[in-house]
Design goal:
Length: 263
């Protein structure tokens, strides 16, 4: 059997089988390009989590309609995917409750929601169906490959990164998503004037976000005097945020814009 090598930064490469069958026939591919494509430090930890019967059912029925496997092999036509709606990319939607709420509150905006978490993908598809939300598409795989290989330049009207994994240990800081390199890639995919909205309950990560975003030439702070933004009313409480608040954490929102630049 042909094998690819799955390179992990913290251990020896683990063998993975190429062309593995999806766990849910018709559902997301078990091993999208993100996990074997290249040697790179990842901002997520692959996990094989339990999927409920309802989530599995949603994955099988709805993935062919609203799902997207991140294979890194084609450039997406967002206009066709979303019928011409402006499109916001949400990276790391978790279980997707907040994503569904935002999609319901703003049906005139398409949300391309990406995560590697299978139960969450099933949950969000189920929420979209039950609430009649036709403006959500769910992508499976690494957001970096989606941004780099599959989204055209200046194609996004916004980018949301809510409560990205904080990777609190110093030796894991390199796994944090919000880094200068990521911002350069994200800026290239955002339309001029589009907003990057980050939120975190992890104070040291908030400080890092503020520092790298403020220093990045492709972004400007929407706050006239710099610093964090007041929590926008449109951002629902997310699951991860609730857990942080229960622990007494303070939440910070950061709203930065890709500048309009010269006309
Ligand atoms: C801490 S959880 C937060 C989930 C949700 N936003 C919330 O607030 O409840 C972060 C999520 O980001 C996902 N994630 C991290 N890096 C990712 C990447 N490069 N591509 C896709 N998903 C990613 C993880 O799988 C995880 O589900």
């Amino acid at each position: 059997m042909s094998e690819l090598r799955n390179h992990t930064p913290d251990g020896p490469p683990a063998p993975i089988r190429a062309g593995r069958e999806p766990r849910f026939p018709g559902g997301p591919v078990a091993d999208p390009a993100g996990s074997h494509h290249e040697r790179r430090i990842r901002s997520f930890q692959p996990r094989r989590s339990r999927v409920t019967a309802g989530q599995g059912d949603a994955l099988q029925r709805l993935w062919p309609v609203w799902g997207l496997d991140i294979d890194g092999l084609r450039v997406l036509d967002l206009e066709e995917m979303f019928g011409g709606l402006p499109v916001v990319l949400e990276i790391g939607f978790g279980m997707g409750e907040a994503t569904a709420q935002m999609a319901a509150a703003d049906p005139g905006t398409g949300i391309l929601a990406v995560d590697v978490h299978t139960p969450g993908q099933g949950n969000l598809l189920g929420l979209a169906e039950r609430n009649g939300l036709s403006n959500i598409r769910v992508a499976n795989g690494d957001a970096i490959i989606l941004l780099r290989e599959m989204l055209p330049p200046r194609s996004l009207d916004g980018l949301r990164v809510f409560f990205p994994d904080p990777w609190p240990k110093k030796r894991h800081h390199k796994r944090r998503l919000i880094q200068p390199e990521f911002l350069t890639l994200a800026a290239a995919r955002l339309k001029p004037g589009a907003i990057l909205h980050c939120a975190t309950d992890w104070e040291p990560y908030a400080e890092q976000m503020l520092e790298v975003l403020s220093a990045h030439p492709d972004f400007e702070n929407t706050q006239e005097h710099g610093g964090y933004a007041p929590r926008p009313a449109f951002r629902p409480l997310t699951r991860f945020e609730g857990q942080g608040l229960d622990k007494g954490h303070k939440v910070h929102d950061l709203l930065f814009r890709r500048p309009l630049g010269p006309a």
